[in-house]
Amino acid sequence: MKKKWLSCLLAGTMLLAACGNSADKTAKENQDSEKATQSEKTEHTAHQGGQHELPNGDLQEETASSDILPSFLDKQSEDLKLVYQAAGKATEVLKWMPCYCGCAESANHESNLNCFIKEVKKDGSIVWDDHGTRCIVCVEIAIKSIKQAQEGVPLKDIRKKIDEDYKEGYAKPTKTPMPPA
After folding, report:
1. DSSP letters of the chain?
2. Dihedral (C-alpha) 13, 17, 21, 24: value to the nearest 10 degrees?
3. Alpha carbon distance 23, 145 (integer Å)
4. Over 70: is that where the pLDDT of 128 sits?
5. What's the predicted TM-score (pTM) here?
6. Measured distance CA(103)–CA(114) in Å, rounded
7. Distance from C-alpha of 70 to C-alpha of 63, rounded to nearest angstrom
8. CB 99 within 8 Å of CB 37
9. Nearest CA-CA partner of 101 in 59, 138, 128
């Protein structure tokens, strides 16, 4: 049930992303995100460390687990929060998918996972990266990859499809290894 719900949610998010962002929609999303519940505010007390800015302008923030989203998402749309939440649960998918936004050069990313998560530590804590908050290419690749994985598509086939979809008109991909057989 949970996988089906997440799949529907990701499909809806992908549809919204494909439709673009109107000024009205963005304004409403900003208003909605500012109405954070007290429980969301409480979750941020579980953050391990504060934010720090990288030389390329990306922010990183550590939380205790993938269940706790970073505070840099507080003023972002619910759709974007869902993409980050899904990325936190799909690290074993996204680490095999390249990104085609140019982040290999600008941010030294190794895969699409790094657009959302720098590191999953041994204790389960997550070092999040806000790169994906500003990049539709990163978000599209993550949504497509996660959705296909939930449908049972093998990682190698997902990878081939991503490479095919983004081979022209995009930046050079990250140097992401192919998934194992």
Report:
1. -HHHHHHHHHHHHHHHHHH---HHHHHHHHHHHHS--HHHHHHGGGBSS--EE-TTS-EEEEESSTTS--GGGTTS-HHHHHHHHHHHH-HHHHTTS---SSHHHHS---SGGGGTEEEE-TTS-EEEEGGGGG-HHHHHHHHHHHHHHHTT--HHHHHHHHHHHTSSSSPPPP-PPPPP-
2. -20
3. 28
4. yes
5. 0.75
6. 9
7. 6
8. no
9. 138
- Name the strands in the sheet holding 126-129, side by side, starting at the edge strand that comes first in the sequence: 52-53, 59-63, 126-129, 117-120
Structure tokens at 106: 């600008």
Work out the angle at residue 56's Cα, subtended by the Cα atoms of residues 73 and 92, and round it to the nearest 5 degrees: 55
Tokens of 110: 């190794």
Looking from the CA of 145 toward its CB, the CA atoms found within 13 Å total: 32
Condensed to tens digits (0 to 9), the pLDDT of residues 11-47 reads 444 433 433 333 333 333 433 444 333 334 334 434 4
